[in-house]
Amino acid sequence: MGKTMLEVKDLKTKYITRFREDVYAVDGVSLKIEEGKSLGIAGESGCGKSTLALSLMGYYFPPLHYISGDIVVDGKNISKMDPDDIRRNILGTEIAYIPQAAMNALNPTQKIIRFIEDVIRVHEPKKTKKDIYDMAKARFEELGLPASVLEKHAVELSGGMKQRTVIAISTILSPKVLIADEPSSALDVTSQKMVIKMLKNLMEKGYIKSMIFITHELPLLYNVTDDIMVMYAGQIVEKGKAKEMVFDPIHPYSKGLMGSIIVPEAGSRDVKLTAIPGTPPNLKKPPAGCRFAERCRYATAECRAISIDSKEFEEGRSYRCIYDVEKLREVYGNEK
After folding, report:
1. Could you tell me the residue range of the domain that residue 299 belongs to?
2. Considering the entire predicted model, what is its pTM?
3. Rounded (10°) CA dihedral 251, 256, 261, 264
4. Chain segment 273-303, per-residue pLDDT in tens
5. Which DSSP string do the residues of 129-173 spell out, in sequence order?
6. Residues 6+ away with beta carbon under 8 Å from 134
7. Is residue 230 part of a domain?
8. CB under 8 Å to 198, separation ≥6 — which residues?
9. Per residue in 101-145, pLDDT tens?
10. Could you tell me if residue 259 is inside a domain?
11. Which residues contact 290 (CB under 8 A, 6 or more apart)?
12. Residue 98 CA: distances (Å) to CA of 1, 62, 71, 315
């Protein structure tokens, strides 16, 4: 086993609305990523993926609030650190975040190099402009970005180039963990491919030690990550190796998620796509039992009544369901 870069234990965070209502968006999430590994997190919109991404940085500001749990980055527990300490000593160097719609994060009136200077001087205030330029030029060129981008404004760059520029800036200080939230969404296929190639390049060259890749496109993760976790209504419902999660999902939600997506493989022409009926539960008042029960065709009265914990059934594989694996596979087999 490699060195653990990020370990999260039973993390719980919530939003407090302007009406003083609590929304439990991340509820008891645990995960671990080792050096050199990447983890994918998949799920439909509103399941809590982006909130989890924000929560993992330990940097909370209203309306997002920390409740409990531990976030350990390369041996440092950051879950209860002072926000200023996290900003100065953790963000950018230990853990970095690429938000959704990151291409819009750049100031349109500021040259890219000025943006990089601001990022670096938070951590290394004594670095000269020349030192920063030389450092940025070398990194950009190594990642396949022309050095001329540094002297341009964001409005002069295409969407794909802006996204790759934001990724380069976010990783300029070589963080231990990179969290990429939907980094390839809103891009054409060619730009998506370049973004994914760039992220893999960062891992291969050791500029980042581990990565979390968040998307609603589960099959995309098969080509990008080592492991996949499926999230639903603030909880992790299944996790395992990427190939297993795509081609042999166990939890009824994971199965439904894959059944609603075209996977390019032999025989896919004859496969019918299926939709998952219903809508996710209201996280202001989460249900007492399984959160997927109201949308699950196999749910029983017991599923709706009791809280269900994750079960590990193989090394590195677990799922959150009242049924055992054999029973689920039997049911799935009978439906074919």
Report:
1. 4-109+153-335
2. 0.92
3. 50
4. 677 889 999 999 999 999 999 999 999 999 9
5. HHHHHHHHHHHHHHTT--GGGGGSBGGGS-HHHHHHHHHHHHTTT
6. none
7. yes
8. 143, 144, 164, 167, 168
9. 777 788 888 999 999 999 999 999 999 999 999 999 999 999 999
10. yes
11. 296, 299, 303, 304, 308, 320, 321, 322
12. 27, 20, 18, 31
CA distances, 247 to each of 70, 125, 174, 219, 261 (Å): 32, 49, 34, 9, 12
Q: How far apart are CA 117 and CA 286, in angstroms?
A: 44
Total number of domains constituting the chain: 1
Q: Is residue 297 part of a domain?
A: yes
Specify whether the CB–CB gap between 206 and 229 falls below 8 A: no
C-alpha 237/C-alpha 223 separation (Å) is 21
**Which CATH number characterizes residue 242's domain?**
3.40.50.300
If residue 243 lies in a helix (H) or strand (E), which one and from where to where?
Answer: helix 242-247
Q: Would residue 59 count as lying in a domain?
A: yes
**Can you read off the two tokens belonging to residue 106?**
């750049």
Q: Is 306 helix (H, G, I), strand (E, B) or coil?
A: coil
CA–CA separation, 102 and 310 (whole Å): 33
- DSSP calls for 54-98: HHHTT---TTEEEEEEEEEETTEE-TTS-HHHHHHHTBTTTEEEE
Tokens of 223: 């080509």
pLDDT tens readout for residues 54-106: 999 998 989 999 999 999 999 999 998 998 999 999 999 999 999 887 777 88
Which residues does residue 16 pair with via DSSP β-bridges, in sequence order?
22
| Residues 319, 232 contacting (CB under 8 angstroms) | no
Q: Which residues contact 171 (CB under 8 A, 6 or more apart)?
A: 96, 178, 202, 207, 208
Size (the chain), residues: 336
